[in-house]
Amino acid sequence: GKRVRPEHDPENIEIKNMRQYEHLSWTEICRILNDERVRNGQIPDLSEAAVYSRFVRNAPRIAAQQGDDGFDPKDYMHLKNTGTRDNGYGPGAGSKSG
Asked: Where is the composition biased (Gly residues) (predicted)?
């Protein structure tokens, strides 16, 4: 069949929206899309790396198509989930419990 262009691929658009507007982690996006694939009878074989690279490759094209000129994938690319293990002073660091 005819292949869908990456910027028209619903999954790619969803990845961009979830990352840009819902601020989900790559792990969460991966889980959501794989769940969706299962429901559609597809193989849930997306990895975080795949989701990440599809975002980096395709999000700028999708943004351009949507007229979002100020979009910069670098603003959303950091793989580290915000607020986890930043500098060793995460939540609870230094508090004595017990």
From this structure: 89-98
